[in-house]
């Protein structure tokens, strides 16, 4: 049986880790290198680093910071934000990342996923999907540019598209739940999980260790990601894993 993964996320802006609610109202959460080393020591299974303003600001990911963070880690490391070409992917992977995460660039040019999968392998390709519920659609719509720009894509259609193009994993963030701390969006997570054959990482809404056991018991998510509750020491990776073991969830 596959063990579930717990993944802290570093949303980075101007060299600092930040966190907001529903992608706005950002506040400082610390130094990315220090936090990365801390989470590695805490027993995190992986780490995600997202340069959250790179696509919006039309610039590249902060490679020097990525290199510094990678130097502190013994766990898999995913980097996203401002990755627009095969050369960008190569630069990030050479800087020490194990996987690259595409969001805005993939929606703009879905072929980029295929190019990355063909060259580096699907295991290196993560597609980050930011989804918000649309009352007219009665489903979730995809947003780009750090949650600023709505698209015409419906969430399951886009999820199937990225997997067909070679994405090996989906990082699924509920914009409605992001920063709300009242639990993961179980309906969104299970809807996407049922639509694809690759691992799905649930993101957005974690506010307590119980939310992790809930998402694993109520959906088939392969991993759960959180930011603020770890950054601000409201709980820890160790506490979450201890709780999951007590609830019968297999973790590393």
Polypeptide structure, described:
By secondary structure, this protein is an alpha/beta fold. The protein has a single domain, classed as Aldolase class I (TIM Barrel, Alpha-Beta Barrel). The protein has eleven helices and twelve strands. It has helices at 32-42, 54-57, 63-70, 86-94, 104-108, 111-120, 155-164, 186-195, 209-218, 228-231, 237-246; strands at 5-13, 16-21, 24-30, 47-51, 77-80, 99-102, 125-134, 139-144, 149-154, 169-174, 200-203, 223-226. An eight-stranded parallel beta barrel has the order 1-4-5-6-7-10-11-12, surrounded by seven helices. Helix 9 (209-218) packs across helix 11 (237-246). The longest helix has 11 residues, at 32-42. The protein starts with a strand and ends in a 6-residue tail after the last helix. The mean pLDDT is 91.
Biggest sheet character:
8 strands, parallel, barrel
Provide the CATH architecture: Alpha-Beta Barrel
Order of helices and strands: EEEHEHHEHEHHEEEHEHEHEHH
Q: What is the helix tally?
A: 11
Q: Mean pLDDT across all residues, rounded?
A: 91
Distance between the termini: 12 Å
The CATH homologous superfamily is named Aldolase class I
Helix content: 25-40%
- What amount of the residues lies in strands? 25-35%
Secondary-structure content class: alpha/beta
State the total count of DSSP E strands.
Answer: 12
For the CA atoms, what is the radius of gyration?
16 Å
Largest sheet, order of strands side by side? 1-4-5-6-7-10-11-12
**Model regions low in confidence, pLDDT < 50 over at least 5 residues:** none
User: At the third CATH level, what is the topology name?
Assistant: TIM Barrel
Described by the principal axes of the CA atoms, the overall outline is globular
Q: How many domain regions?
A: 1
CATH class: Alpha Beta
């Amino acid at each position: 049986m596959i063990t579930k993964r717990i993944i802290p996320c570093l949303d980075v802006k101007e060299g600092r880790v930040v966190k907001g609610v529903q992608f706005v109202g950002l506040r400082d959460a610390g130094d990315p290198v220090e936090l990365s080393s801390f989470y590695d020591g805490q027993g995190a299974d992986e780490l995600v680093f997202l340069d959250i303003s790179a696509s919006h600001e039309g610039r590249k990911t902060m490679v020097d910071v990525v290199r510094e963070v990678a130097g502190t880690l013994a766990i898999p490391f995913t980097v996203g934000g401002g990755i627009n070409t095969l050369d960008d992917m190569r630069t990030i992977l050479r800087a020490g990342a194990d996987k690259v995460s595409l969001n805005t660039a993939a929606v703009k040019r879905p072929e980029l996923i295929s190019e990355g999968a063909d060259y580096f392998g699907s295991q290196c390709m993560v597609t980050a999907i930011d989804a918000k519920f649309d009352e007219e659609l009665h489903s979730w719509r995809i947003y780009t540019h750090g949650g600023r720009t709505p698209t015409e894509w419906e969430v399951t259609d886009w999820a199937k598209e990225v997997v067909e193009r070679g994405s090996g994993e989906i990082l699924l963030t509920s914009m409605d739940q992001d920063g709300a701390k009242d639990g993961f969006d179980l309906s969104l997570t299970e809807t996407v999980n049922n639509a694809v054959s690759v691992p799905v990482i649930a993101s957005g809404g974690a506010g307590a260790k119980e939310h992790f056991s809930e998402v694993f018991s109520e959906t088939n998510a392969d991993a759960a990601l959180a930011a603020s509750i770890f950054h601000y020491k409201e709980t820890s990776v160790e506490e979450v894993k201890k709780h999951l073991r007590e609830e019968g969830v297999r973790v590393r």
